[in-house]
Amino acid sequence: MLVTNHVLSGAVVGAAVRRPVPAFAIGVASHFVLDSLPHWGDWESERHFLRVAVADGLTGLAVMGVITRAVWRAPAADRNKLAASVVLGMVGAALPDMDKPAHIIFKRKLWPDVVNRFHGRIQDEAPNRFVSHELVAATGFALSAAALIKRRGARR
Ligand SMILES: [Zn+2]
Questions:
Q1: Ligand 1 ion: residues within 5 Å (CB)
Q2: 69 CA to middle of ligand 1, Å?
Q3: What is the mean pLDDT of residues 43-57?
Q4: Residue 153: what pLDDT?
Q5: Distance CA 116, CA 109 (A)
Q6: Which residues is 38 bridged to in the sheet?
Q7: Helix %, strand %, coil % for the chain, to 5?
Q8: What is the DSSP track for 7-48?
Q9: Which residues contact 101 (CB under 8 A, 6 or more apart)?
Q10: Of all residues in the chain, what percent carry a pLDDT higher than 70?
């Protein structure tokens, strides 16, 4: 699944849980659950993969920035805790996919082989699932995160 969708789902987790440490842990777990569901992928070449991955990585980073800014502006009594929870949810959800960029940029693997093998084995990827799966998921996660942050912000 696109890392942008992991970021968005992590924001949903963080806004729903509203506790930073559980948000991080559930965020990490959510990554593997979402990767095991049907999603876009199965690239024709490494070059194709990298083209998608770079655009996706930058989009995910931008989305993380926009959501962090939005949650810091939420008029919640517990805004700091809500913001920490949402940010850590997003970080946890994106973290498993950081192995590839770390390997390309720093020539280092972040996770043990057993984790990377598991991560690779659970993927349910196919081409032509961008609109039907990734865009639908992105819309659902974005609307849910916005509603939860707004609702949580309005409470108390
Ligand atoms: Zn992944």
A1: 35, 97
A2: 25
A3: 94
A4: 53
A5: 9
A6: 124
A7: 80, 5, 20
A8: HHHHHHHHHHH--HHHHHHHHHHHHHHHHHSEEE---SSHHH
A9: 53, 57
A10: 97
* CA 117–ligand 1 middle distance (angstroms): 11
* Total count of domains within the chain: 1
Express each pLDDT in 7-36 by its tens digit: 999 999 999 999 999 999 999 999 999 999
By C-alpha distance, which of 154, 153, 152, 136 is closest to 5? Answer: 136
DSSP H or E stretch at residue 125: strand 124-126
Ligand 1 centroid – CA 98 distance (Å): 9
Domain coverage including residue 109: 3-154
| 3 state SS of 73 | coil
Ligand 1 centre to CA of 4 (Å) is 11
- Give the total residue count for the chain: 156
Say what the alpha-carbon torsion angle 126, 128, 133, 134 is, to the nearest 10 degrees: 100
Task: Give Cα separations from 7 to 46, 75, 98 (angstroms).
Answer: 23, 22, 12
- Can you say whether the dihedral through the CA atoms of 83, 84, 87, 93 is positive or negative? negative
Residue 132: helix, strand or coil by DSSP?
A: helix
